[in-house]
């Protein structure tokens, strides 16, 4: 997480001195730097997930532009000394442009983590052998006390990771109408995150997953256009490399591998490396009457050939060749092909439209592999043969929009769309969806616009393959009357409405609202199961409204504010019974009605007591996200889960004094508060549960409240 | 479904007929900025400086400055008349707004949407802008000038000529619902500025759904999250089909921008015999199925596993 501080310390000096050496009127730039005092309760509760607040000197932003070697360059950056820094350099010549960008994005989790594990090598987490041996040989009741002592002595490990992003791009014109565009991107992700490494049904152990991944991508585009024709060819390649491809961790309950009592270690195969090669061709041609036709075809191939690990790391249970693997690697290959054709036309000012066709095919060509069995949790061998399923799917969409403008201030758009989906190896192999919609836009005056839309869609599956809910022996492992929402029959309604009003340059107001309803219906295939209950996600409703406005009262005072409210409601039904047989009544059902709410409000007051000299601005932020969990069951024994709540609010004021055209001095104060109530992530104990038999070991992850204050001084130099 | 296919086929047939009716091709007439008057002639940027000193002063630092175009009647280097059209009549009006010649220049903010965008598209018609004509924005009369300000950009350094400080601020001016969603507790680093809407969406149009910069949601997500790209030995079908089945990329109340809190999210599709969901009868939260990452405390490889024992994503 350490920023590249040394390499950036020269920047403020350079930028401040630059005006003295910069060229004549052509050059310009701006740099803002200063120093900040930052204080926060519960320092480890860094909810500022993607930012790095400085405590001490900082460079807030800089821009330098000038002529150079017959072209012009621009150097733009922010937060140069911090872990969320970003710097971009662009150089332009008449026929080409080159750009380079480097940025860091921190992922600071609001957690504390205490782990007795020590990383002996990349991805290998070990406990003291003596401790494992003591627990293994001692009574089960001793586990909690020994681990408790170990955790008290354990150090804190930072949870979080950082993404370093480097981009380079060169684009230009080779000849009239012939252009090229070359891009390269490299993402480097490094750090730690919490990960689950269970040794059994009730023995969840949380460990650190070391992250050290590199993602590289290159793309080349060649475009040609002449008169009414445009052509473009794109080729690209990308690769994912994982420097830590397996995670091995000690079992706190055992030191030695045992064929019956379990494993001394566990092992997870982390994300396998993969590579993709892709290419596409696009053509666009313009006809009379504002008519144009665009067509694109694309194809890509992704391969993944990481070596398989053995069934288990438990050497006592599976000797080499006891249960040979059916191969050495997945030999994964997926080919994606796309076709897109769109015809756009506006033959007159009264009518226009689009007709479109789109097909996407994910052809998973990975071979099926049958394994003799498996070893769940590295603990015990199950001899049930298991076969892999390379899931694939195809989506074809046909659609048309027609827009009618009976008068210049009104437009009405009608929409019709049909979608066919096909899947391999799923319980629903085909479905089809029809959608109809209408959009209305009215502009009664130049400063007033009103919009509204409504869309209704219905998805129906063609076939339901019940055997996909059964194991190899024909026993149901999933309730046959469950309908998975991503493939189930669905009626969908969407509506939006909005008003925007800008009667003058000083005042603008807007108001908008959105509504979405998904109802997951029983399908005809349910006729095979008369009088059955309906399980899974039943319906979902989303509502949201928001408004914002700005008002320049006079030259000295400006106001702006925004407010938003939303709610997502879902209703789902499940079973309490462990039986896999079909149950036709609700007697063992429970139902969950969940609501996720959110509210936000922002406000800014900008006061200029001395115009062009002194500016005082105050900003306010409020974000609140509660969640409620209403649970019922047939027996009447269900209880609601506690309400969750995330609250973030902040207030800040800054004052800027403009000394002259090139220098401004500023000071600011800000306050921020974060509060959380979440049964899942607050007070997670290191040893779990707090009552009864201890079975699980966590990192003590905990989302924590905090309050923060900051005071700072800043200088803005402009030239 | 057959009826719908017939409807679509009819549409496509109508489209073909329409195309035939628009043939043959005519000489290029719309790809150049429309001349405001047949009598106007090009007079050069020097003539503009006299009245438009502010725009002229800033022009030297504008990304358009010095850029070359081919075949434009205003000249090889991009200048005022490259976009605003021939200015001789406008200059002749000598600042008199009542003179009908004054308004003979192309004003991108006052021109009809298609005409305003045509000025920009005459040069910017490939790469990012290749699919502009078919974009939802163009179809809804959004013009280039609604988001870009050639003379008064607000993005740092003015390299993208945006009317707002970054692409996100530009987008939420109209997409208020997305502004609300970004306020959620779990979100992408968009508010913080490490990402913008334009990292995932191409506002100039694309061949993907919702103007995303990929052929599908999954192709888009895995362009950054390549670790999830697979193909895996053991696959989780909704993961392979659509990331958005479980995640809400614009923000949510739940960890990892999940659409619902676990275990409820998982239990929308899984009511398996091994996990009877009796935990709700209990008057406390003593269950590792409610704590922390819930189901994924154990099923940590939920995006797919390459381990021979990874069928249920435990390894």
Give a short overview.
The complex is a heterodimer of chains A (719) and B (315). Chain A is mainly β. Chain A is built from four helices and 37 strands.
Explained architecture:
The complex is a heterodimer of chains A (719) and B (315). Helix content of chain A is 5%, strand content 61%. Chain A is built from 4 helices and 37 strands. In chain A, the strands form 5 sheets. Chain A has a 26-stranded antiparallel β-barrel. Chain A has a 4-stranded mixed sheet with strand order 6-7-12-13, with no helix packed on it. Chain A has a two-stranded antiparallel ribbon with strand order 18-21. Chain A is globular. The N terminus of chain A is likely disordered. Chain B is mainly alpha-helical and 315 residues long. Chain B starts with a helix and ends in a 48-residue tail after the last helix. At the A-B interface, strand 2, strand 3, strand 4, strand 5 and strand 9 of A face helix 1, helix 10, helix 12 and helix 13 of B.
What topology emerges from the helices and strands here?
The complex is a heterodimer of chains A (719) and B (315).
Chain A: H1 5-8, H2 10-21, E1 28-40, E2 56-68, E3 71-78, E4 86-92, E5 96-108, E6 118-121, E7 124-126, H3 129-137, H4 142-153, E8 160-175, E9 178-196, E10 206-226, E11 229-242, E12 246-250, E13 265-269, E14 274-287, E15 291-304, E16 332-348, E17 351-364, E18 370-371, E19 374-376, E20 380-382, E21 386-387, E22 392-407, E23 410-424, E24 430-445, E25 448-461, E26 482-483, E27 490-504, E28 507-520, E29 535-554, E30 557-575, E31 589-610, E32 614-633, E33 641-660, E34 663-677, E35 687-688, E36 696-697, E37 706-718
Parallel strand pairs in A: 7-12, 26-29
Antiparallel strand pairs in A: 1-2, 1-37, 2-3, 3-4, 4-5, 5-8, 6-7, 8-9, 9-10, 10-11, 11-14, 12-13, 14-15, 15-16, 16-17, 17-22, 18-21, 19-20, 22-23, 23-24, 24-25, 25-27, 27-28, 28-29, 29-30, 30-31, 31-32, 32-33, 33-34, 34-37, 35-36
Chain B: H1 2-22, H2 46-49, H3 53-59, H4 80-84, H5 88-92, H6 113-121, H7 136-139, H8 144-147, H9 167-171, H10 176-181, H11 197-200, H12 217-224, H13 237-241, H14 264-267
């Amino acid at each position: 997480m350490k920023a590249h501080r040394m390499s950036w310390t020269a920047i403020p000096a350079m930028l401040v001195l630059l005006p003295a050496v910069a060229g004549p009127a052509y050059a310009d730039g701006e740099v803002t730097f200063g120093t900040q005092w930052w204080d926060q309760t519960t320092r480890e509760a860094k909810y500022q997930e993607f930012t790095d607040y400085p405590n001490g000197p900082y460079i807030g932003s800089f821009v330098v532009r000038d002529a150079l070697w017959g072209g012009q360059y621009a150097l733009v950056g922010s937060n140069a000394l911090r872990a969320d820094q970003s710097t971009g350099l662009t150089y332009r010549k008449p026929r080409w442009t080159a750009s380079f960008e480097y940025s860091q994005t921190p992922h600071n989790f609001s957690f504390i983590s205490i782990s007795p594990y020590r990383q002996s090598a990349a991805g290998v987490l070990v406990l003291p052998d003596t401790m494992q041996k003591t627990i293994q040989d001692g009574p089960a009741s001793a586990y909690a006390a020994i681990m408790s002592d170990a955790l008290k002595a354990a150090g804190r490990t930072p949870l979080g990771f950082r993404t370093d992003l480097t981009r380079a791009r060169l684009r230009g014109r080779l000849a009239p109408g012939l252009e090229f565009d070359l891009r390269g991107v490299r993402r480097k992700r490094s750090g730690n995150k919490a990960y689950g490494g269970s040794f059994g049904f009730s023995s969840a152990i949380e460990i650190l997953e070391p992250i050290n991944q590199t993602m590289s991508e290159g793309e080349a585009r060649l475009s040609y256009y002449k008169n009414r024709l445009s052509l473009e060819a794109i080729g690209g390649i990308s690769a994912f490399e994982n420097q830590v491809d397996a995670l091995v961790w000690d079992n706190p309950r055992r030191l030695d591998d045992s064929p019956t009592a379990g494993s001394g270690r566990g092992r997870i195969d982390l994300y396998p490396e993969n590579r993709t090669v892709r290419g596409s061709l696009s053509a666009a041609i313009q006809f009379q009457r504002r008519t144009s036709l665009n067509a694109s075809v694309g194809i890509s191939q992704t391969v993944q050939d990481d070596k398989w690990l053995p069934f288990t790391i438990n050497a006592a249970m599976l000797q080499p060749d006891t249960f040979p693997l059916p191969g050495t690697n997945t030999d994964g290959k997926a080919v994606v092909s796309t076709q897109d054709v769109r015809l756009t036309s506006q033959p007159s000012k009264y009518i226009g439209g689009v007709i479109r066709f789109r097909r996407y095919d994910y052809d998973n060509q990975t071979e099926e592999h049958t394994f003799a069995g498996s070893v769940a949790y590295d603990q015990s061998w199950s001899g049930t043969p298991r076969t892999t399923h390379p899931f694939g799917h195809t989506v074809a969409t046909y659609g048309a929009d027609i827009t009618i403008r009976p008068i210049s201030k009104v437009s009405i758009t009608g929409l019709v769309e049909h979608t066919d989906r096909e899947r391999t190896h799923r319980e629903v192999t085909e479905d089809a969806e029809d959608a109809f919609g209408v959009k209305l836009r009215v502009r009664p005056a130049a400063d007033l616009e009103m919009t509204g839309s409504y869309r209704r869609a219905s998805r129906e599956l063609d076939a339901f393959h019940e055997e996909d809910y059964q194991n190899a022996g024909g026993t149901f492992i999933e309730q046959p009357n469950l309908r998975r929402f991503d493939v189930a029959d669905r009626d969908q309604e969407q509506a939006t409405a909005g008003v925007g009003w800008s009667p003058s340059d000083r005042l603008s107001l807007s108001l908008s609202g959105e509504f979405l309803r998904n109802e997951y219906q029983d399908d005809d295939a349910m006729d095979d199961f008369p009088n059955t209950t309906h399980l899974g996600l039943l319906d979902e409703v989303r509502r949201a409204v928001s408004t914002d406005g700005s008002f320049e009262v006079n030259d000295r005072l400006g106001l702006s504010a925004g407010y938003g409210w939303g709610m997502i409601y879902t209703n789902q039904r499940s079973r309490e019974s462990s039986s896999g047989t079909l149950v036709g009544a609700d007697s063992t059902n429970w139902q969950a009605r969940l609501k996720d709410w959110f509210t936000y409000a922002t406000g800014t007051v900008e006061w200029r007591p001395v115009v062009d000299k002194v500016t005082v601005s105050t900003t306010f932020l409020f974000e609140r996200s509660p969640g409620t969990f209403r649970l019922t069951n047939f027996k009447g024994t269900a209880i609601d889960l506690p309400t969750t709540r995330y609250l973030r609010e902040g207030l800040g004021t800054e004052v800027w004094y403009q000394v002259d055209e090139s220098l401004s001095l500023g000071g600011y104060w800000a306050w921020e508060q974060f509060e959380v109530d979440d049964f899942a992530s607050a007070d997670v104990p290191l040893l779990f549960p707090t009552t009864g038999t201890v079975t699980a070991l966590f990192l003590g992850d905990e989302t924590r409240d905090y309050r923060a204050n900051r005071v700072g001084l800043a200088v803005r130099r402009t030239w | 479904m057959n009826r719908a296919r017939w409807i679509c086929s009819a549409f496509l047939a109508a489209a073909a007929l329409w195309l035939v009716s628009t043939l043959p091709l005519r000489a290029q007439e719309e790809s150049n900025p429309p001349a405001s008057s047949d009598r106007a002639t090009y007079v050069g940027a020097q003539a503009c400086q006299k009245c438009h000193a502010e725009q002229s002063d800033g022009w030297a630092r504008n990304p358009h400055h010095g850029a070359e175009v081919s075949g434009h009647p205003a000249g090889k280097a991009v200048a005022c008349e490259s976009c605003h059209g021939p200015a001789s009549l406008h200059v002749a009006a000598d600042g008199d707004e009542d003179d009908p010649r004054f308004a003979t220049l192309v004003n991108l903010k006052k021109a009809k949407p298609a005409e305003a965008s045509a000025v920009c598209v005459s040069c910017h018609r490939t790469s990012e802008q290749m699919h502009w004509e078919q974009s939802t924005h163009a179809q809804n009369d959004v013009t280039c000038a609604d988001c870009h300000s050639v003379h008064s950009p607000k993005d740092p350094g003015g390299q993208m000529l945006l009317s707002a400080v970054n692409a996100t601020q530009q987008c939420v001016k109209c997409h208020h619902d997305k502004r609300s969603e970004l306020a959620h507790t779990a979100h992408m680093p968009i508010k913080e500025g490490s990402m913008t809407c334009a990292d995932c969406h191409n506002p100039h149009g694309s061949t993907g759904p919702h103007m995303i910069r990929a052929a599908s949601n999954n192709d888009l997500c895995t362009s950054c999250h390549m670790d999830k790209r697979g193909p895996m030995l053991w696959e989780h079908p909704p993961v392979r089909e659509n990331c958005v089945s479980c995640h809400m990329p614009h923000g949510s109340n739940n960890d990892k921008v999940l659409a619902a809190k676990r275990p409820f999210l998982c239990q929308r599709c899984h009511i398996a015999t091994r996990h009877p969901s009796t935990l709700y009868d209990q008057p406390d939260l003593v269950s590792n199925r409610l704590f922390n990452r819930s189901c994924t405390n154990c099923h940590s490889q939920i995006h797919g596993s390459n381990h021979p024992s990874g069928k249920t994503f435990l390894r």
